[in-house]
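This protein record is not my work; I was only asked to verify it. The record follows directly below this note.
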Amino acid sequence: MTKPRINSTDCVHAGAGPCDTSASVTVPIVHSAPFKFPSTRALTDYLDGKTERRQPEYGRMGNPTVASAERRLAALEGAERAVLFGSGMAAVCTLLLATVKAGDHVVLTRDSYKRTRDFVAENLARFGVTSSVAEPSLEGIREAITPQTRLVFTETPTNPHLHVVDVEGLAELGRERNVLTVVDPTFATPVNLSPLEHGVDLVVHSASKYLGGHNDLTAGVVAGSAEQVEPIAELNMTLGAVCSPNTAWLLERGLRTLALRVARQNASGQAVAEFLSEHPKVAHVSYPGLPSHPQHQLAARQMNGFGGVVTFAVDADFDGAARFVDSLQLALIAPSLGGVETLVEQVAVMGYWQMPHPEREALGMADNIVRLSLGIEEAEDLIADLKQALDCV
């Protein structure tokens, strides 16, 4: 038997060498868990802090593709640093774990995502962290703050009722009471609102939504000053809730068209909200761009656009609202928001079905509440679809 021309050593090492991607227009996807050093001295100098290197030694600690997306996100947010996570909830939970300890108190606003509230009330409570749920307003938050309060967390606009919180006032309140302020502007995006520019300490996004923009990824991000983001990034290295390079590449691709998509969704949101507000089969519309919205003037002052989510109450019972949702032809029945496709959900079903009916009602999640997340379809087509579906109620 002759010796094989190619063996396993050849397959692993033949022709191997550095790959020059400096001329690439798009950021390449770097698939590598470990990252090599040229010598032991180079490694020890790096570990001793004598030399700097953009790439850590292991993928859980960083990746070139992920780092590129983080730099872009930091720039868009006006932040010194941003860190990516495998999901929005991974970002929220890691942020909270890194910033609060036993004996601390956390204030959440009422419309904050249910799983965020559950994590604080159930999981953090096991470690001696107490919490309060406040109305999504400066007055409500101020009343909820105690001497033990370490952190205030709010969304703006909130989900699903689209309450708008005064972020500049929140930042001032945080400084006055020595409380860390965290804002989730997922519904607004950096295009419509930059909380850090208003003095807020940290921003967190579900990047799965508008930032990715195509309903094809799951990611989260925390952005802020380097000093405040560093312990969150360090904890993420331990927990390992990191973003994959494939996801980071998709996210960065989505970010390139963020302003274009949000401009279309802002325009469609306004047009759809105005149409619904005048329809006889719609009982109520929540949209910051309408003068009827209780925080319309605040939204107009602090936002560059009012977003692509419209929440409204169909003038019907549970079955009538379900019939409306089922009759839509363009909107897809699915959770999430911010993608190029229009999505719709009957809020009581999609997010709160397991909750007893009286508790749902108490939270404002009535059976006839519908959340519509507009995509980039033509506004007139979306309105025509809504009209024919409302005719079925």
About this structure: The radius of gyration is 24 Å. The domain at 63-255 is CATH 3.40.640.10 (Aspartate Aminotransferase; domain 2).
